[in-house]
Amino acid sequence: MRGPPARPGLRRSRTRSARCRRRPGPARRTARPPARRQLREFLAGHPGIGPAEPAGPAKEPRPDPWPRINPTDLAEVRAVRTTVRTVLEEAATDPAGTAVLINDGLRRSRATLALRNDHDRWWTEAVSDTDRCSAHLAATTLSALASVIAALGPARLGMCAGQACRGTFVDLSRNGSKQFCTRTCAHRASVAAYRSRGGRRRASPAPSSATADPPHDRR
């Protein structure tokens, strides 16, 4: 004799739970590849970051210097990003410590100057003689920040004054009065200040007739 038939709802729930057990979640498996892909796309969009080329006009496009990005590259680039942010945050308040940080990063990236040209235009770039993309990123960014400090002073590097904004900036203005990373943050700060002034005016009580100045006697 067969037992009573199973209830349809119970059968579906058991089937669904079995599928959940067999199918691993994709979150852990796909967390790292997108970050590596984003780094590769960033490097592809900045062709100047890479091994130095001999001086002379470019005749043919060079091959991709970063065909593969591995987890070690990603970890090293994140360390460079932390160093760059520390420089931007602390240059104005600790210029001596910032100089030590920049010099150490350039030394570890084995940065050297390369002379490049495009037709009649010549310039120098800091490059690295290693095959690590993090070293080339460090050489490019840290040398650029060092040039800004040498030309304009460490106070030109700073953090955005916008509320709840973690953005940083390099102030290349003439008077060195930059306070916000973008115009969006500057506009938000202006709107907040205007609303704050309006609120204070509404909150201040109007003078009563008892405390008002008496009218002048015209006699």
What does this structure look like?
- The protein has 219 residues and is mainly α.
- Among the domains are: 70-153, no CATH class; 160-201, no CATH class.
- The chain has 6 helices and 4 strands, in the order H-H-H-H-E-E-H-E-E-H.
- It has helices at residues 8-22, 32-45, 71-90, 95-108, 133-152, 183-203; strands spanning 111-118, 121-128, 157-159, 168-170.
- The strands form 2 sheets. A two-stranded antiparallel sheet has the order 1-2. A two-stranded antiparallel ribbon has the order 3-4.
- Strand 3 and strand 4 (168-170) form a beta hairpin.
- Helix 3 runs antiparallel to helix 4 (95-108) and helix 4 packs antiparallel against helix 5 (133-152).
- The longest helix has 21 residues, at 183-203.
- The N and C termini lie far apart (122 Å).
- The relative contact order is 0.09.
Q: What percentage of the residues does DSSP assign to strands (E)?
A: 5-15%
Sheet of most strands: 2 strands, antiparallel
What sort of overall outline do the alpha carbons produce when their principal axes are compared?
elongated
Q: How many DSSP-defined strands?
A: 4
What is the ordering of alpha helices and beta strands?
Answer: HHHHEEHEEH
Structural class estimated from helices and strands: mainly alpha
Would you tell me the overall average pLDDT?
A: 78
Total DSSP helices: 6
Can you tag this structure with a few keywords?
219 residues, 6 helices, two-stranded antiparallel sheet, elongated, mainly alpha, 4 strands
